[in-house]
Amino acid sequence: MKTMICCFSILLVILIGAPVQAENWELYDNFKGGFFNHGYIDPERWAGLVLTNLVPPYLWVGENAMEIQFGRFHIRNHAYGGIFVSPSAFIEEDLYIRKHEGIKGLKATLNVLAAEVSSCPSSPTAFLPRSLARVLGHFLKDSADGFDVAAFLFADRSNNSTEAFNVLKVGYAISKCINEFCTGYTPIVAPTYIGTVHLWENFVLSLQWDEDNNQFIFQLNKNTPVYVPFGTFLPGDTHSPVVPPAHPIRKAISALNMFTPCTTEGQEALVDVYFDNVYVLR
Question: The domain that contains 233 carries what CATH number?
Answer without folding.
Answer: 2.60.120.200
